[in-house]
Design brief:
The structure is a single chain. By secondary structure, the chain is an alpha/beta fold. The chain is built from six helices and six strands, in the order H-E-H-E-H-E-H-E-H-E-E-H. The model is unreliable at 2-29 and 33-39 (pLDDT under 50).
Amino acid sequence: MKKRLSLSIILAVALGVIAAQSQTPKAPSSVPTVNSAAAAEIRVIDLDGLKKLLQRDANEPRPLLVNFWASWCDGCREEFPDLVKIDQDYRARGLNFLSVTVDELEDKAQAASFIEEMKAKMPVVLLNVADKEPAIHAIDMNWDGALPATFIYDKNGTVSYRHFGKISPAELRTAIDKQLGTKQ
């Protein structure tokens, strides 16, 4: 009787593991939406997931602001309050914003804590790749991977603005206004 019970338990656990592995989430084809109830939720993506997020849909005329950062990066931490304010000011005006942390997977909780501390509402993903070089070049051939890095993609998916290092909020706002066809 004990053997049957043990075998039943092992079989049930094995089937549960197989079922869980078969339910691998698919990466969305557009920028994740803001989740105000869990702003510090960070989804892990790979290079293909990042490429899908950066693709511009023909039905999506809004520009996309993408900022690459890490919780250990001093310049990233210094500029982040300005980015949160820009997101607040431009979200209703038609700007999509994607925040991409390049923290290591084991530092995800630290990155989430930073996002929560900043009261950030933009979607945040953690880029989890074994080799960062292909990801860097997929974003911009002129980028050497230094952080922070900020890009604006126009409605056609072309990089219309790039800045390596800590951004100037006024310069970034000017670039966003140009994409939106407005003046602040």
